[in-house]
Amino acid sequence: MGRIVSIGECMGELSETGTPGTLNMGFAGDTLNTAYYLRRSLGPDWQVDYVTAIGTDGLSQRMLDFLKAEDIGTHHIAQLADKTIGLYYITLKDGERSFTYWRSDSAAKKLASDPAALARALDGADLAYWSGITLAILSNQDRLALIEALSQFAGRGGTVVFDPNLRPRLWDNPESMRGWIHRAAAVSDLCLPSFEDEATWFDDADPEATIKRYLAEGARRVVVKNGAGYVTFAGSNGEISTSAIPPVEQVVDTTAAGDSFNAGYLAAELAGASVADAITAGARLAANVIGARGALVPDAVRPS
Ligand code: AMP
Q1: Cα(119)–Cα(294) distance, integer angstroms
Q2: What separation in Å is there between the alpha carbon of 128 and the centre of ligand 1?
Q3: Domain boundaries of the chain, sorted by first residue
Q4: Calpha distance 29→213 (Å, rounded)
Q5: Are 225 and 195 in contact (CB under 8 A)?
Q6: Residue 106: enclosing H or E segment and its boundaries?
Q7: pLDDT tens, 14-36?
Q8: Which of 15, 24, 192, 301 is 20 to 30 A from 294, alpha carbon to alpha carbon?
């Protein structure tokens, strides 16, 4: 029996249906997307818990019900009486999606404000998964508390996995983002950046430059995703390998491409796959996810 803890923000998702006056209601968020695909990829000998904060209102309860229905553990989700969940709205125009967010006062911003609760959530877990978005939404004090909790978890032998998921709009300024992302990498065994973001915000010339930077900051292993391009891997000895990914017939919507890749990769690695096979598993899952609309695609996990 193993246990994974995914830490971050899940939001309500409102999307236009094409029928005036009706909206679809769903739930998504980078770390939740990965938890969802991990839960569907792993057998019953793995428990997947989500760690966040929500409100006590009806909408928050709907999210809790959704997570429970997906068999994602909710025991470590804090419920705060004076807050509610963040929301986003997807507008569809000529097939293009644009997003409007209401998340500046979401309950999830408090997910690390109780260090004792964080320690309880991590206690006895095998792997903790978090992202640059998890870090971005917190106060400086809570960022330090979360980094400290994960550092202690790693010190006890836990595996910390981090997707930088660079979103400058969530940070005060790019400099602050860069500094905190590197602090996060320093406590993470495995970093899973996406090259396009890294090139934009860290000026990396190629995936090898991204790898060198994260290894220099203290990450032990790095897997660099690169859209339809090669995935590049490096272990702590600095040895670099590249893997081509299977071609995708039709890209419908790249939402959650990276999140689902991470889940496919991790699930394969936890089952004992080699790095090359884990990359293929991640790319296969991502291909199924981007072949359909939305972040959570129920039939994306298929037997290989
Ligand atoms: P990204 O975060 O955009 O680099 O993408 C994460 C993963 O999703 C990649 O490593 C691929 O496995 C998959 N992916 C994203 N975009 C594409 C694409 N256009 N064609 C094929 N696979 C893609």
Answers
A1: 33
A2: 23
A3: 2-10+30-83+109-290
A4: 27
A5: yes
A6: none
A7: 988 878 899 999 999 999 999 99
A8: 192
Candidates 30, 49, 197, 259; catalytic one? 259
> Is 259 an annotated catalytic residue?
yes
Q: Within 10 Å of residue 59's Cβ, how many Cβ atoms?
A: 15
Secondary structure letter of residue 72 according to DSSP: -
CATH code for the structural domain at 2-10+30-83+109-290 = 3.40.1190.20
| Statement: residue 223 has pLDDT above 70 | yes
Query: How far away, in angstroms, is 245 Cα from ligand 1 center?
Result: 9
Site to substitute for ligand 1 among 226, 230, 285, most atoms within 8 A of C-beta: 226
What's residue 96's pLDDT? 73
| Whether residue 233 has its Cβ less than 6 Å from ligand 1 | no
Q: What is the mean pLDDT of residues 161-181?
A: 98
Task: Please give the distance, rounded to the nearest whole angstrom, from the Cα atom of residue 257 to the centre of ligand 1.
Answer: 6
